[in-house]
Design goal:
The complex is a heterodimer of chains A (787) and B (264). Chain A is an alpha/beta fold and 787 residues long. Helices cover 50% and strands 8% of the residues of chain A. Chain B has a single domain, classed as TIM Barrel (Alpha-Beta Barrel). Chain B is built from 9 helices and 11 strands. Chain B has a 9-stranded mixed beta sheet with strand order 5-1-2-6-7-8-9-10-11. Chain B has a two-stranded antiparallel sheet with strand order 3-4. Classes of the chains: A alpha/beta (787), B alpha/beta (264).
Chain lengths: 787, 264
């Protein structure tokens, strides 16, 4: 990277995360104006965005090439009191916690105390939500049966489509005006709401134009004072870019990046949608601009790379909006889950890999930033060069890029009813979520704790943590005569709580649709304009609501353990097993060793355990898939945890697989930590035992030591491993290349790392199987390799 | 027909081409001092006590090393990795122990693999009767053949077995067109001398279809296994070769025009 980028990157890394009261203050002033109340809600929201973008401070960093910050400066994060209000206590937690803190200055505390809290308390979406959610929902929520995404952040998980790069705000305004002109007040019962929604969108699009114009003006003022010739040229470039986009469609590479970035800032200023926003298939969207620039001589590869790098830094400047309450104490990441997609298929089904795909991979490797996240889409049709290049970056050990199966994603999306073309224009966003980019509102509603359901089933509906009868009485566990009868009871319990979850989500969805539309996000999501309907109200071409199942591995092992130990070998009676669990296995070391080491486990390609993965998956799928929501979305399942398996684990006592009370559940579709002893091929086989095509995403993590990736042959073998998993319809795989500090941790906590493979000399072995001296030797070696 | 196997490991990536499944056969009549798998020496299964961690406690649990299995059972286990073989050009490698201690069992396994389009390799010390050797090698797609020394006395002293039958097998008719990888352990105080390399090179030059040479520098990783099994560890005090010494050996063979890999 050149000097400029080096400096910008360093500044971004060094910038301190702070809470900025600017947005909260502006939005409060806007809503306090008496005339605001006179406008319909969608119009208010469009006007609110205009108010924000007209008045927020502009930031132009020294030597910046891409402009626009959500806050007044990099890493200064605004808040969204209309969604949820931080209490003074929340601010203090955020300010003072040792990890993932957001600094809060005295002025912010004051503004919050005097202005924000008094105005918004009781009015925020969160307050409204908790006022009307039924008791049974709240009880299940507190017991850790499920979480709720929309209590602190707006519906999101949406990615830009190619249309975004071919239209300017003026084009959208024209489409909006045409849609308004078409409204049929004679016959359409929703004519008024359509008209209000479209008016809100129009304000929002205008807001973006105003924002860019303000930048052009500010740049001109800077130019008058700038003495450095190079910087003068930068400023002239940027003035012309900001005069063009986002009002008009971009025509150059620089314009395209700035165009997207203005829109990005627009989306995340309007509201705080989950996963912020995402440019999606960047190597596809930018290719026409790249090729044109190279052909007419206005762009070089070096300049394209510099601009991309400047663009990367903008993502890193934007940590996730800070959470409140319990979630604030638990959430420990600044990541906001933007996920750049590279590779995959064109909409006509051919290989989409291009020169820019590889340039972007170079950028990912060189920038080595937490944000944006990156991934490679790998179809059967993509060249091996793509996965090999990705493996070489994975090898450097910062967890990027992850690898996705394009062919599986396309099948998943088509099963849900997308056209083949729309499916191929899609990819994955957030962690692993499949979506049709630009055309779909695919909203994650919350994680679901499957092992908690088993725990309730084994206690006849009583939550052992509280003694409360939380679920229906599904039968005395001692009466189950075989694993099938237990699984039937589990299914009844599961359906009961899925129904509670879905009722809650349906209610919450209507609150958002009615009270907090997102006219800007709607204007850039296809079919919202044509339908005259908001993104939050089902306006997009495709609408999906996900519930994410957590604990697949733990559940599979629990069923296997009960079947084998209680019903087959009869080593323990059900009563004995439950009694040991009640004591958290304390005093039952030998029995616990039996459960951990002598009972079949998911992740070893062992039929005795893996047959139950389908009991777990199919019951969850049956309970959720195909249900309809008020906005016209369909509920679907995903199998991913983020970090929720830790929280959920804290809400579950000891389990039949030997997991002790409070410990994390298994993660994603990965095996229980340490239960897989037969290497990555066995894990892949187990993980592909259930039909991943009927999900919207699964997450599989694999750990490797850096030394495994020692040469080209190893890189090729990683490629083979991935291709084999994808041939079995695996959705996603991620390689965790472990560094020395993790190996240290593995040394101290071997039970958590029993699946860690390290390359020793002429062979690879499990780290735990090595003598302490050898472990030491490998740890030292690794540090050398990482230099 | 049954055979004794002590492990079947998937995702073996150092024992032949592609991603492989290694079938470890129990039993070996050599006693190489540096052997990494002393648990494979005896052919019959035996019980060992293994420490298992439960929370912060260690629980002693008996485990049986070795198992009597049928070729069909071996095939079933190996087939679990079929998709990986097909993607990577991998297959099954029979190792041990000495696979040729159980020639008819291995032969039957290899025939079953063949019937399922699975590439096979054997990893052998070469210490076997000529007929057994020929019958198995004939059916196998690739041979990984150890060459430890060229001096009969030293070979006898350090491996407990004669050199002559090994060389005879290496030079036999059945080996003439077989793809072969020669694996040379580099053991200080035993074979790390240029004049040994020179004689080895001469022998290796006689092979028509040599893929490459693997140099396997000695490591004392397996010392703890000897303690656990109560077997005397004769390599006590022998140091591991340093990288300069390994380079000397590698350069020697490379200069002779051989393909070479360090560590397999």
């Amino acid at each position: 990277m050149n000097k400029r980028i080096e400096k910008l990157r360093e500044d971004s890394l060094k910038a301190i995360n702070r809470i900025s009261p600017e947005r909260a203050d502006l939005i409060t002033r806007f809503y306090r104006e008496p005339e605001t109340a006179g406008f319909p809600v969608p119009v208010q929201r469009g006007m609110a965005l205009l108010h924000l973008l007209q008045n927020k401070k502009l930031y132009i960093g020294k030597n910046e090439l891409i402009l626009g910050e959500r806050g007044p400066a990099p890493k200064e994060v605004p808040t969204y009191p209309e969604v949820c209000v931080h209490s003074l206590k929340d601010l203090e937690i955020l300010d003072t916690r040792p990890k993932v803190s957001y600094k809060v200055d005295q002025e912010t505390y004051r503004i919050y105390q005097d202005e924000i809290i008094p105005f918004w308390s009781g009015r925020s979406i969160r307050d409204r939500m908790f006022r009307i959610l039924p008791d049974e929902w709240k009880k299940a929520y507190s017991a850790g049966v499920f979480t709720e995404f929309m209590e602190q952040r707006a519906p999101g998980h949406t990615v830009a489509g190619e249309g975004l790069f071919t239209k300017g705000m003026n084009d959208l305004i024209r489409e909006i005006d045409e849609a308004i002109a078409r409204i049929d007040f004679l016959n359409d019962g929703k004519a008024l709401s359509r008209s209000e929604e479209l008016t809100g969108m129009r304000y929002a699009c205008e807001a973006l134009i105003v924002f860019a114009e303000r930048y052009a003006k500010a740049l001109k003022e800077l130019l008058a004072e700038e003495e450095n010739r190079d910087r003068q040229n930068d400023l002239l470039d940027m003035i012309s870019v900001c005069r063009k986009v986002p009002a008009q469609a971009p025509e150059t590479f620089h314009e395209a990046l700035q165009h997207y970035w203005f829109i990005h800032v627009g989306v995340i200023t309007e509201l705080n949608p989950w996963d912020s926003f995402n440019p999606g298939r960047l190597d596809q969207h930018l290719l026409p601009f790249y090729e044109k620039g190279l052909a007419d001589g206005s762009l070089t590869t070096e300049r394209a790379k510099e601009l991309l790098q400047a663009f990367w830094i903008k993502f890193n400047n934007h940590p996730a909006p800070p959470k409140v309450g319990v979630t604030a104490q638990e959430s420990n990441t600044y990541t906001d889950f933007c996920l750049i997609n590279v590779g995959g298929l064109k909409s006509d089904g051919t290989d989409a890999t291009n020169e820019l795909s590889f340039l972007i991979l170079d950028v990912i490797e060189e920038m080595r930033l937490l944000q944006p996240g990156s991934m490679v889409q790998l179809s059967q049709k993509n060249p091996d060069r793509l996965i090999h290049r990705a493996a070489r970056i994975i090898k450097t050990g910062f967890g990027q890029p992850s690898v996705f199966n394009t062919d599986a994603i396309v099948k998943e999306l088509m099963r849900q009813g997308k056209t083949a073309e729309d499916a191929r224009r899609g990819g994955a966003s957030g962690c692993v979520e499949a979506g049709a980019f630009g055309t779909e509102a695919y909203i994650l509603t919350g994680y679901f704790n499957m092992p908690k359901i088993l725990e309730l089933t084994l206690n006849n509906g009583v939550d052992p943590l509280t003694g409360i009868q939380l679920g229906p009485a599904t039968g005395d566990p001692g009466d189950f005569r075989n694993i099938e009868s237990l699984i039937s009871a589990y299914r009844v319990m599961l359906q009961h709580f899925i129904n509670i979850k879905i009722s809650g989500s349906n209610l919450i969805e209507q609150i958002w649709a009615g009270q907090m539309p997102a006219p800007f996000l709607s204007a850039i999501t296809e079919d919202c304009i044509v339908n005259g309907t908001d993104y939050n109200a089902g306006g997009a071409r495709y609408n999906t609501s996900y519930i994410q199942g957590v604990g697949l591995g733990t559940m599979t092992d629990c069923f296997a353990s009960i079947r084998v130990n209680v019903f087959e070998t009869k080593r323990f009676s059900m009563e004995k097993l439950l009694a040991m669990m009640k004591e958290d296995f304390s005093g039952f070391d030998r029995e616990l060793a039996q459960l951990i080491y002598k009972t079949p486990k998911y992740g070893n390609d062992d039929e005795a355990a893996d047959r139950h993965v389908n009991d777990v998956f199919e019951s969850f799928f049956d309970a959720v898939d195909g249900r309809r929501s008020p906005r016209g979305a369909t509920y679907r399942v995903e199998m991913l945890p983020t970090t929720c398996h830790v929280y959920f684990g804290s809400k579950v006592n000891a389990l039949p697989d030997g997991r002790r009370a409070g410990k994390p559940l298994s993660e994603g579709i990965s095996p229980v930590q340490g239960a897989d002893r037969k290497g990555p091929t066995a894990v892949i086989k187990s993980a592909s035992r259930f039909d991943q095509i009927r999900t919207g995403g699964t997450l599989l993590n694999q750990k490797f030591s850096p030394a495994f990736f020692k040469d080209d042959e190893a890189i090729r073998k990683i490629g083979h491993l991935v291709r084999a998993y994808f041939r079995l319809d695996g959705h996603h795989i991620q390689f965790n290349v472990i560094n020395a500090s993790t190996l240290r941790e593995a040394q101290a906590n071997p039970e958590k790392f029993s699946n860690l493979i390290v390359r020793v000399a002429g062979y690879s072995d499990y780290f735990n199987d090595l003598t302490p001296e050898l472990q030491e030797e490998i740890i030292c070696r690794t540090e050398h390799e990482n230099e | 027909m049954n055979g004794y196997v002590f492990d079947i490991r998937h995702f073996s990536v150092h024992d032949g081409p592609g991603i492989r499944t290694a079938v470890f056969l129990k039993g070996c009549s050599l006693r190489c001092r540096w052997c990494h798998n002393p648990e494979s020496h005896d052919m019959l299964p035996h019980e060992t006590i293994v420490e298992k961690r439960v929370g912060d406690k260690l629980i002693m649990m008996p485990e049986i090393t070795g198992k009597s299995v049928t070729p069909a059972e071996v095939l079933d286990e190996v087939l679990k990795s079929r998709v990986f073989f097909e993607e990577s050009g991998g297959g099954a490698t029979f190792t041990g122990g000495e696979p040729l201690m159980q020639p008819s069992f291995v032969l039957e396994c290899i025939r079953l693999m063949k019937g399922n389009n699975i590439h096979t390799a054997i990893d052998t010390s070469g210490f076997a009767g000529s007929e057994d050797f020929a019958s198995v090698v004939k059916e196998t797609d690739m041979i990984l053949f150890d060459l430890k020394h060229t001096d009969a006395d030293l070979h006898q002293e350090f491996t407990g077995g004669p050199l002559e039958p090994i060389l005879r097998n290496l030079r036999s008719e059945v080996m003439s067109d077989k793809p072969v990888i020669i694996r040379i352990p580099l053991v200080p105080g035993f074979n790390m001398a240029v004049k040994v390399y020179a004689k080895m090179a001469e022998i290796i030059s006689g092979l028509n279809n040599l893929i490459r040479i693997d140099l396997l520098p000695y490591h004392h990783y397996a010392a703890h296994k000897y303690t656990r099994l109560g077997i005397e560890f004769k390599m006590e005090g022998v140091r591991e070769p340093d990288s300069r010494e390994v380079s000397t050996a590698a350069d020697f063979f490379r200069n002779k025009g051989f393909e070479l890999s360090i560590g397999g």
